[in-house]
Amino acid sequence: MGKILFFLAAAVVGWLIFKILRKKPDADQATPPGPPEQMVKCDLCGVFMPESESAQLDDKRTCRTPQRCLHRQAA
Fold first, then answer.
1. Across all residues in the chain, what is the average pLDDT?
2. Is the pTM for the entire model greater than 0.85?
3. Spatial distance between the Cα atoms of 61 and 46, rounded to a whole number of angstroms
C-alpha cells in the first residue's frame, strides 16, 4: 500500500511541475494593443501613412523624407 501512495504522490508532484513549467508568463502579462493610429495623406505624393511617420513641411503633410516623396511625384 505504501508503494502505491508513493507513486501516486510522485505522479501528482510531477504533473504539477509539468504544468508550472509549461505555463507562459508573457501570455498573462500581455498588454492589449492601443487604439489604431490615424492615417494621413501626403500632400505631395498622395500616399497614406500613419501620422507618426509623416512630417510637416511648409504647412503641408509630407512623407518623413520629402526628397523621396518629390522623387515619387516626378516618376
1. 80
2. no
3. 10
